[in-house]
Every structure is written in C-alpha cells, then in structure tokens.
Design brief:
By secondary structure, this protein is mainly α. It has one helix and no strands.
Length: 89
C-alpha cells in the first residue's frame, strides 16, 4: 500500500504537467491563429492602400491634364480676342 501512495503523487504531478503542456499548446495555437489574422488584415490593408495610391495618382494626372487644357483654352481665347479686335471698326 505504501508503494501505491508514493506512485499516486508522482502520477498526479505528471497529469498536472501534461495538462500544463496541453494548455501551452492550445495557447500557442491561439497565438498562431491571431498572427494569421493580423497578417490577413495587413495584406488587405496593403492592397487597399495600393489601390488608393493608384487612384490618387490617376486623379492627379487627370487634374494636370485638365489644367493644361484650361491653359490652352485661355491662350485660344486670348488669340481669338486679339483677332476680334482686328475686325472692330
């Protein structure tokens, strides 16, 4: 009977150690899942940022084109005004 009492505390320690290892493994799995989620969000954020940067560049290019068009129209209007002045009596 004495041997049985000595073995039970050892087994209890092993069971507690095993339970602790299982908890650590679950915690590690939860951390990995969390990191995977963070990576997915980071990838989505990067893709959205790239899309917004591209749209911003396109908008800037369009604004420059409109500005050049407006300058060209202003020059044409000035030239037309000078030509009209030639025909005034």
């Amino acid at each position: 009977m004495l041997i049985l009492l000595t073995v039970l505390p050892g087994q209890t320690n092993l069971l507690a150690l095993n339970a602790a290892i299982v908890d650590m493994a679950k915690g590690t799995q939860d951390m990995v899942k969390g990191i995977d989620t963070i990576n997915k969000v980071a990838d989505q954020t990067l893709a959205s940022t790239e899309t917004m940067a591209t749209a911003s560049e396109e908008q800037t290019a369009s604004m420059h084109e409109i500005s050049r068009g407006a300058e060209s129209l202003a020059e044409m209007a000035g030239e037309l005004n000078r030509l009209v002045q030639n025909f005034k009596l």
